[in-house]
Structures are given as C-alpha cells and as structure tokens.
Specification:
Elements lengths: L25 H10 L54 H37 L3 H4 L10 H27 L3 H7 L11 H22 L5 H15 L6 H5 L6 H21 L8 H10 L9 H17 L3 H11 L8
Helix pairs in contact: 2-4, 6-7, 7-9, 9-11, 9-12, 10-11, 11-12
Subcellular location: Mitochondrion inner membrane
GO biological process, one term: intracellular monoatomic cation homeostasis
Membrane topology: Single-pass membrane protein
Amino acid sequence: MMLSSPCRQLSYGAPSRVYRRCASSSSAAAESKKENSTVGSEAVTTPLDATSTATATLDPDVALSSTLNPPASTRPPPLNVPTRDPEASLFSYLFSVGKTYYAFYRAGLKAINTNRKLLNEVSNSLDAPASLKDSSDTKVRPTRAAILLRERTRHDLSRLPVFGLVLLVFGEFTPLVVLAFPKLTPYTCRIPKQIEKLRSNAQERRDASIRNIRHATEPSALNKLAPGHIVRCLDLANSLWDKAGIDPPFASAKAEKAIGRIVTDDAMIRDGGGVNALEPDEVVLACEDRAFDVRSADVETLRNKLSKWIEASTKAEGADSKAVVRNMLIGLDNETK
C-alpha cells in the first residue's frame, strides 16, 4: 500500500524464485513473457495466494517474490532521465528525454496489464467464502501479497481511462500535467517528482490536522475529532473538506475501515516473517499507509519504526488491537513515530 531515501523513485526489484498454486500452460507463459520483460527472473519458494509449500513454477514476469511482498510490477519502473551533453543540441536532448518518458509510461501501462493477468490467477483465493478464509486450510487463505496486488491493480485500472486520455492529448507534456494532477495517475506510471509532491502534500495535511486537534484535551472531545483526523492523516478523502473546515462525509466509517485494514495488515506482516521479510520499497509504502513521514528517513530507520508499530499493534487482540492502532494514528502513542 516499498532506498537510501524514501522520496526517490520506487524501483523494480528482481524477484528471486517464485511459485503459484497452478502452473499456466507453456503457451500462456510464453505470451506473458513476450509482453512483459521488465522484471528479473531469479527464483523463491513461497506461493502467491497461500502459505502452503505447494510449488508450481510461474513465469517470473508475472510472479510474486513472497507472500508478503506484491510483485515489483505494482510499483513504478525505473526512470533515468538523461543529462544534457554540453555538445548536444537542445533538440536532440529534448528528444532523448521524450523517448525516456515514453518508455517509462509504456512500461507502466504494460505492468497494469501484467498485474491484471496475475490478479485473475489468484482471484479464487481472494474471493473465497469467509468461512474458508478463516479456516486452517492455507490453500484458500489470501496472503498480504495477493491483497495488495488486488488493491493496487484496481486503483490503477480505475485511473487508466483518464490517464490514457491525458497521455494521448498531451503526449510528451504529460509529465507536466501529472504534476498538476498527481492523483489521476496509476501507481505504475508515477514519476519521482510526482511521488515526492504527493508525499509532501500528505505530510502538510497531517501537520495541519495535528495542529487543529491539539486543543482537545478531554477524551470525549478527542473521540469526536479522531475520525476526521484519521481520514486526513491517511489521505482518505479530498483535501477540499479541510479548507471548508469540516470532516468529510462518512468519516467515522472510513476511519474504522482503515483501522481494521491496518490491524489485519499488521498481523499478516507479523505472521509472514516480520518487517525484515519486507522488501525496502514495501517498507516505505507500509510506513506511508500508517501515516509516517517517509521523506527524510532511510529504509532501516523506517524498518525499525514499523517494527515498533507492529509490535505494539499485535500485542493486543480484536477490539484492543484496533484501539492501539487508533491511538497511534491520533498521536497518543508517539513512540512508534
């Protein structure tokens, strides 16, 4: 929902060895490999949609590196904008920059299609009845990797029509347009400056919300302000509501849903091997999902903070665990941040 600095571009990581529950046909694997060639091919031993040890080799272009980490194709590909050669003409430099951005967006759009195909492969475990998901049969229990794959793929598919139109109309000027409207872009097509702007805007919004609730000292007053504050801190609603000075509609429901999601994610990370099993890019994204400021911290610092958060969250169970997460989000437990 992962780097010397978390503000830099999230990059593809080469997944080691990968498995899934059922192997695709050789022709489908060949077709997938032909269409998507941006991810490495080294191998791992954990399946996508369960924690069982059943092994079936998947094409590395559409595979997860573990049950905790979604595929690298759910994150933006590398973007290396060329520097201008003093002896080169302005036209040739701009042409090379345009080619670089074209290749970046092309890879990002391909990744969305790759993720859509992979999501279809694991839809059975994600759509299993609740009674089966909660059972001891790990073959039908969705993993964190599969859940994040679904969330990110749905997010990207919902933005694909508008972004495709922007790309068609503005062409090489698309990078300038997306900086003005950063949330219109799929995750896989976000350039580094766009990610940096989104993080800065999110932190400014959190800081403003914290200032607005500082006057609340009574528990009853804090409880009343908490839902709106959590929604703002997690960027769950349009910032126009902040300017109006009122909470977004259904703030309480959105806050409770977000808290429940974080509690579930904390438990999955704990049970799946802990924070040390997360890829660096995913550590940064997990911290963002918990309203951490990731702009000026290195990955190891964020990893330590995330470990403290999950330790505090998973000590309790059920409603108590939700209360702990709620308190951390509204700032009553500052040790985790």
